[in-house]
Amino acid sequence: MDRGFPLSRRAALAGIAALPLVGCGIDGTTGAAPLASTPQPQKQTLADRSLDSLAQRGGRRFGSAIASTPGYTKGGSIQNPRYAELVRAQSGIVVPENELKWQALRPDPQHFDFARADEIVHWAKDNALAVRGHNLLWFRPQWFPEWLNTYDFGANPRMQAEQLLTTHIRTVVDRYRGTIHSWDVVNEAIDHDTHGLMKTSLGTAMGSAEAALDLAFHTAREELPQGQLVYNDYMSWEPQHMAHCADVLRLLEGFRKRDVPVDALGIQSHIEMFSIDPATGVGPYAEKQWRSFLDEVVGMGYRLLITEFDVKDKALPADIAIRDAKVADYARRYFDVMLSYGDHLDDILAWGLVDKFSWLQNFAPAKRPDGLEVRGCPYDDAYQPKPLREAIATAFATG
């Protein structure tokens, strides 16, 4: 056996003695087949490894959003065997894309409909995947069910609003107790125009938006003493997000001052190239300000998650090879920064894995002026890995 160095005499004799004496002639020749060399294991490349297995090197999981039925994603669901298999193969954790939101769960004040959410949770369990919860309260009127926007809270509105909110959170959390340990308790509570908290029917009935948010987290903590309770918001490192980051910091500071049990900040990370920086050839990003923001967040004791990653390529040229390369470059820069907070960074989830099923195809601000498909996911429409997938894999392997 050739191992790169000569055999000793004892090893050589032992090897000869072990050979079968088949066809041995008086001249000492043998008809036995030559000794086969031991097959060497093939070294796995980054393309061979799942994104989750690479993320686990840093003690975290990679995963994706997935739907129960095609819906507006037109196929990015557990009902699409090919897509479901891709998500299963690359992920260690999944999150229902819309099925746990009030619009999906609460057709009216008296009833819950868990059918679609249950489908995803059962599928995840069957495939040994963890599940994140998104979300218990999306604090924006346009994402409330209409009955909640016009709800009559009666003669004692604060009590009625508290009862409605706590019943919702306890019912949903209890159904998935033991399965979902990390919840986006509150999602997107800040008004981008006023820089204050959103005005909603719940906040008005309770006397303030803070009262509604605080109650949501306190109720979730009562139900999940050991769970991870997350405030999740739409932000990333572009210069146009810096004012919103300042608003988020004020909210997080308020939570700490009021002793609200918030464990982590979920950073959606729908990173975007709506213009091009001539110096880098990709979208502008404010790395120094972004790091300062993250430093303040972790300095207050919050952990970080990347909850909804994808890339908007609106300003990039139509050429697919150029576009894909620049999307990958931009994402790699972003992940290099985020992974430098490794001691504070938990799970990383994409908001879908295949371009044609991405919500970005139907999100007006992300649509391209040339009408072409947004190429913001790790896999193309033929389920083939793109340079973005390679960039994520490399960042996980080296970060």
UniProtKB/TrEMBL annotation:
GO terms for biological process: xylan catabolic process. GO terms for molecular function: endo-1,4-beta-xylanase activity. Residues 75-395 form the GH10 domain. Keywords: Carbohydrate metabolism, Glycosidase, Hydrolase, Polysaccharide degradation, Signal, Xylan degradation. Its EC number is 3.2.1.8. PROSITE patterns: GH10_2. Pfam families: Glyco_hydro_10 (PF00331). It catalyses: Endohydrolysis of (1->4)-beta-D-xylosidic linkages in xylans. Gene3D superfamilies: Glycosidases. Belongs to the glycosyl hydrolase 10 (cellulase F) family. This is Beta-xylanase.
